[in-house]
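Q: Could you fold this chain for me?
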Amino acid sequence: MAKTGEKAKDRHPPLQKLYKNACPLTEDGGGNVKKPYMKKAWLVTWESPRTPPDSEAQIVAILDYRCSEKKVKLYIEQCYIDRCYSLEEKMACAKSRKNNPYPAEFNKINGLVFAGQITCGANPWLFGRLVKNLSLRVDEDGGQKLLWEETEIPKSLRP
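A: Sure. Below is the predicted structure, expressed as structure tokens.
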């Protein structure tokens, strides 16, 4: 409960204040506009032969690169369950993960597991991977486009 005389707006600061450092465009103090940038991140996207590669609808999540591969794998699997399964299928998966027909899996390259890439599902499927140089481009109309570089596959996994 609020104390006497305490206003609701004092208890709940505006979102701009809470997410000051996460706003799409911020000033750096010198009047210059800084665009959001992450050196590394986990990027989760929908993939399908029918989805245009630069589609904004393709982006599902951006996760901190410090999240463990196991946590990202569980997150991707749960996203797929939440968005693609019927209520009955969701209940079956909640009861036991063994009931999931499309569990998330680490990609295999030349028969070796590569934990930097995770897939889940059929068509469409979710694809999570570590990316680098993730940035946001904003055009004059306010349209936003996410840009990134794919992380190279380690030399030890290449043929």
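A (continued): The two ends are 64 Å apart (CA to CA).
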